[in-house]
Write a structure and sequence with these properties.
By secondary structure, the chain is α+β, with helices and mostly antiparallel strands. It is built from four helices and ten strands; from the N terminus they run H-H-H-E-E-E-E-E-E-E-H-E-E-E.
């Protein structure tokens, strides 16, 4: 049970705060403080669709796709994920158990042979190692474990 004082503070904070994003963060803090086992954060990425801008490796290597729209991720609110990775399409799952955390489940992919300059093989290899995300200046950044690099996406057009 949530202590009455926490609820009162949350209501006060939400009425004073002007932006929905801050209200959402405060609501999450209240839920965590109240001892909830799981906080459902699917609404932060759910129903969003992104296209690749670039990959920056942990060693500073920057790779840019010839066309960002060939590399897309769509996060559905039900936890399903749809992907286009160059010449292949895929479906999988995603979950976010805490702010900034992201785990992508196994993905079923078509198996067409993409051109040699494609980023397909690299992305397919990296997706299981995505562990966190941040949305900054309207772009989605997916980070790999152990400073393996970061994928930058922009909203899909």
């Amino acid at each position: 049970m949530v202590p009455r004082r926490i609820i009162e503070l949350a209501v006060l904070a939400v009425t004073v705060v002007a932006t929905p994003a801050v209200a959402c963060v405060l609501g999450t803090i209240v839920a965590v403080t109240a001892g909830c086992a799981t906080v459902d954060l699917r609404h932060t990425l759910g129903n969003t669709s992104w296209q690749l801008v670039q990959f920056e490796g942990g060693d500073g290597t920057v790779l840019t796709p010839d066309e960002g729209s060939k590399y897309t991720l769509t996060f559905n609110a039900d936890g399903s994920l749809a992907a286009r990775i160059d010449c292949n399409r895929g479906r999988g799952t995603w979950k976010s158990g805490a702010p900034s955390q992201l785990e992508l489940g196994p993905m079923a992919l078509t198996r067409a042979l993409c051109p040699p300059e494609s980023l397909h093989d690299r992305i397919v290899k990296h997706l299981p190692y995505v562990r966190s995300y941040v949305i900054k200046d309207g772009h989605l950044f997916l980070s790999l474990i152990a400073d393996g690099g970061t994928y930058e996406f922009e909203p899909r057009q």
